[in-house]
Amino acid sequence: MSPRKKTPDVNAPLEAGGDGFGLLFRSHPIPMWIYDLETLAFLEVNHAAVEKYGYTRGEFLGLTIKDIRPTEDVPRLLENTGGTRPPLQYSGEWRHRLKSGALIDAEITSHTIEFNGRACALVMARDVTKEKRTKEAVQASEKRFRALIQNGLDNISLLAADGTLLWESPAVQSTLNYETDQFVGRNIFEIMHPDDLGWTGEAFQKVLQEPGSSRHESFRLRNSKGEWRWVEAIATNMLHEPHIEAVVINYRDVTERRRAEEARKEAEIHYRSLFEQMHDGIFIMSLDGRIVNANQRGADMLGYTIEELRELSIFEASMQPEASREVTRRTQACGGGAQRGGNPLSFVVRANARRHLHHEPGRAHHERQPARRRHAGIHHRGTANAYGFRGIRATGGKQGGARTAFERGTHPAV
After folding, report:
1. Most-buried pick from 55, 192, 355, 378 (CB within 10 A)?
2. How far apart are CA 350 and CA 334, in angstroms?
3. Could you report the per-residue pLDDT of 221-269, keeping only the tens digit for each?
4. In this structure, are 207 and 104 located in the same domain?
């Protein structure tokens, strides 16, 4: 028979060493100690505890487990140690104070033992301070993220590679009037406008082919009422990201903006047609009298091409010097905000040598723009009333010259 192995004596002085228990206790990388269940005094500590907490072994043995707790945590500690406990107990996280005064968070697991004839507990204290701070930072980040998502005006969708909706932000209720998660598990292309299905499908496939790539597109989606709403979207391939694994779609409703843009384009086409087809000559000019644009009728009246007029001022193109100074004065008065209306100004106009014209009274218009101010009869971009030269009509004149009237008035800007 082989001799029986001797069971390690946990009651033997640990400093003497030589047995497996003492070696394991002293060498364990996690702080450990033995304390008296009645007096709460430290009876033994290992090297990791000395290193972590900053006390020498001798200093530890002069303390109780209350001494390494913040004062406000001691009542909870006494409550925890005062009752009946199981042999093996997980006590959760506790705050411990180091010799330096710094606090750490320790996860406590203990087991009852008999040590030197006393009822004791063997404790393992794992420092979870960094782990806890990291967890708290992640939770705070998630809380901020949820607040942004839940209260954001833009909608966010996560799509699988086949277009299946994996997650939808609460903004879908205001964007498309669907309940949150109503379409989760369904293909998002089900609510795509038929005319947009083809090209959006191709665009989606291109995004899938390149991890991290993005595309910016506008298309139509059907809301809960069956109405088609224009949305502006950015699709980003994040299928390769371990914590996302989806194509992220950020989009917003731009229906009203699209309608306004279409109305503006229609108005521009309409008024451009009026500008080009009117029988009166129409000129758009800057405050210093430079001709910015003119319709064909105006160019024909002065005997120039439109391109030639754009290189001239209204004075160079048509007026004699004595008239130009007064027109300049009144033009600048319009630009400075002079009141609308007023007495006509008559002056002799000089035409191109190819043609002699008489100009009929017109009205002054003024358009104010942040970047540039112009005087115009009918302005193709304006949205407010304007000042400038309105209709100039050939009627003939005396001595090869012409007379015209210049007055300030109000006309719808074009």
Report:
1. 378
2. 23
3. 999 999 999 999 999 999 998 888 999 999 999 999 999 999 999 988 8
4. no
Domain boundary (203, 227, 253) is at 253
Rounded to 5°, the CA angle 15-98-38 comes to 60
Record the tokens describing residue 72, joined without a space. 């406000």
Size of the chain, expressed as the number of residues it contains: 414
Contact call for residues 108 and 92 (beta carbons, < 8 A): yes
**Is 331 within a domain?**
yes
Q: Which of 3-17, 92-106, 156-170, 321-335 has the lowest mean pLDDT?
A: 3-17
Domain that holds residue 26: 14-131
CA angle 93, 97, 102 (to 5 degrees): 110
pLDDT at position 117 over 50? yes
Report the CATH number at residue 69: 3.30.450.20
Residue 8 has pLDDT above 50, yes or no: no
Instruction: Determine the pLDDT at residue 377.
Output: 38
Structurally, the chain folds into a number of domains equal to: 3
- Residue 382 token pair: 């304006």
Q: Which amino acid is located at 205 in the chain?
A: Q
Whether 36 and 118 have beta carbons less than 8 Å apart is answered as yes
Examine residue 4 and state whether it is found in any structural domain, yes or no.
no
Report phi then psi at 192, rounded to 5: -85, 145
Q: CB–CB of 97/103 below 8 Å?
A: yes
- pTM more than 0.85: no
- List, as own/partner pairs, every contact residues 294-300 make where C-beta atoms lie below 8 angstroms and the sequence separation is at least 24, other chains included: 298/392
